[in-house]
Amino acid sequence: MEMNTPKALSIFLHFAFCMVLLAACRPRTVDVGEPFSDYNDFPLLELSIADLAEKMASGQLTAVSITEMYLERVEAIDRSGPNLNSVIELNPDALRIARQLDQERAEGKTRGPLHGIPVMIKDNIDTADRMMTTAGASALMGNYAKEDAFLVKRLRESGAVLLGKTNLSEWANFRSTRSSSGWSSRGGQTHNPYVLDRNPCGSSAGSGAAVSANLCVVAIGTETNGSIVCPSASNSVVGLKPTVGLISRRGVIPISFSQDTAGPMARTVADAALCLGVLVGVDEKDRMSAESSGQFLTDYTPFLKIDGLKGKRIGVWRSKFGFHEGVDAALEPALKAIVEAGAELVDLETIIENANELRGQAFALLQYEFKDGVNAYLETASPATGVKSLEDVIAYNYMHEGEAMPFFKMEILELSQARAGLGEEAYLTAKRLIQSASREGIDRVMHEHRLDAILAPTGGPAWCTDLINGDHFGSGSSTPAAWAGYPNITVPAGFVEGLPVGMSFFGRAWSEGELISIAYAFEQMTKARRPPEFKASISN
Questions:
Q1: pLDDT, average across residues 407-427
Q2: How confident is the model over 202-246, as pLDDT tens digits?
Q3: Residue 461 above 50 pLDDT?
Q4: How far is CA 374 from CA 261, 262, 482, in A?
Q5: Are 254 and 260 in contact (CB under 8 A)?
Q6: Does the N-terminal peptide bond of residue 203 adopt cis geometry, omega within 30 degrees of 0?
Q7: 86 carries an active-site annotation
Q8: Distances from the Cα of 383 to the Cαs of 46, 379, 394, 503, in angstroms?
Q9: Can you say whether the dihedral through the CA atoms of 394, 397, 401, 404 is positive or negative?
Q10: Coil, strand, or helix at residue 184?
Q11: Catalytic residue (one of 10, 176, 185, 203)
Q12: Catalytic hit among 180, 212, 227, 438
């Protein structure tokens, strides 16, 4: 690719700067003494937000002691031992924040439900601090945000300790047609904590793995199509993808204005519900969030009902079963539990009638919106990055191919760059077709069968990570809710040869409360989650 001399010099200088930052940005070392002989011999193992809040209120623990233990856990599990590699950067100010929150508690003040609770943030979400926001891309090294993302501001207001940022599939897995989920040129490959040679699924791979491995209490992921629910299921955690607009996207490196949303990833439905109430709110700088006015709640915990399945009619998307006999065997007891809890199951075959014919339009839609959104984001990125557009990112990657593209290329970036603007008829047509087909499909099926929700396997068991050939998804059920911008929650549902699988529940727009109620009752009936054992392979 031809470049003029000033541009080439700028990118060269940026590359040199990146090399310094790559060496400097790794998490600080914490002296933990002897390595853990048992990686689940951890004082905070599987503790919930409520558990930790109670211990802080009683004086048994402090925000500082909790933060220190998680920092030690990151060093022992993520940077050594199993080398999970889910955390891309630790917050150098985490302990200072924790001390401040302890002081406030001592003075009789608590900010909110997350006061003193360590939270991890996916590395495509802006934090106005000493952590970078790069979407895992080496081209964005040195990008320090001037302003917190709206959701980060809400977390700080609620008293969360921002512990660090999680690794992800670079550019939220919108880079190559044969990428490996959980790999980024900045962070390398994240591993599945249940079986380390297996994939954690993407793109919120680091968030799912970190929560599952008890490196934090809760993490924030983002989804365009499957990127919260898939890593949640593959790591045996709860992932809640809300209605698009319920959580502001301001300050999140985008793929699609139509489909993008952030959401909580936690070990329990209760923690996900509590976190959701913190994240919501109308943001005048994200016009989509205006649609949530009158729709959101700041407290979703009243929906945590043990009898939340009683009297419910739930559609079973049958065509999403049968792709793997192990998944069917793992989920059959879960389906029986739903019936035993008082729900009625109604078999469904199709949600979106012409889904296969629309996949090309859906891919085109994302390319148009990615180019537009990323260009807008990069215009305000730190000057130190040396990149101000998608075209600059592509040029950087070609100039530093060994670092930026050692395993797979960037076909999707180039396809997106070739697209015109959002006024083009092809884009407008794609958007109209995708949204109408998906929304009408879900609404029609739910109306016809008088359903409260639709369920399906979230996906298959994790595949062996393959940096050469890319991902090997067995199946997935995220597309209808993703295209429609409707909510979707996945809950741990069982295991196949030691690999977790999840059950997804999705429904109409703004039905988060209903889905939380169903998911909570399902979780309490099945109690399928168990902590990972960090096995090297299935045979170990």
A1: 98
A2: 999 999 999 999 999 999 999 999 999 999 999 999 999 999 999
A3: yes
A4: 15, 17, 20
A5: yes
A6: yes
A7: no
A8: 41, 9, 17, 44
A9: negative
A10: strand
A11: 203
A12: 227
